[in-house]
Amino acid sequence: MALIYDESVRSVRSNISINNMDGTKAYLRHYESKLTLCFFATYGSPHERWQAEKELKICERKLRFWENHPNFVGQLAREGMEKLNNDWKGRRAT
Question: How far is Cα 45 from Cα 20, in angstroms, rounded to an integer?
């Protein structure tokens, strides 16, 4: 499993303004990561489960951040989450 979130590494400042970003799209990217992490937390090897559970805490924090972003649209996020949930429904480890 690839490391998705690493708390020990902090990103450097960039010239991109977070205030101008699409909060809904960013939220949905992290929500999809959450679904991936939940999959590994359920079906992964013991190490993958441990890593996924650790990273889920970070993912939840990022979801809360984007949910409070000024460019976040709740209705669009709910629609995107529903689509992602349907895409993930029934997935099992092979």
Answer: 39
Residue 6 to residues 42, 43, 71, Cα–Cα distance (Å): 20, 21, 26
How many Å apart are CA 60 and CA 80, to the nearest integer? Answer: 17
The two tokens of residue 46 are 């013991």
The token pair at 50 is 């441990």
Residue 19 phi, psi (nearest 5): -65, -25
Tens digit of each residue's pLDDT (9 = 90 or more) over 28-43: 999 999 999 999 999 9
Task: Give exposure, 36-71, as e/b (b: 16+ Cβ within 10 Å).
Answer: bbebbbeebeeebeebbeebbebbeebbeebbebee
Residue type, 92: R
Q: Is the pLDDT of residue 46 over 60?
A: yes
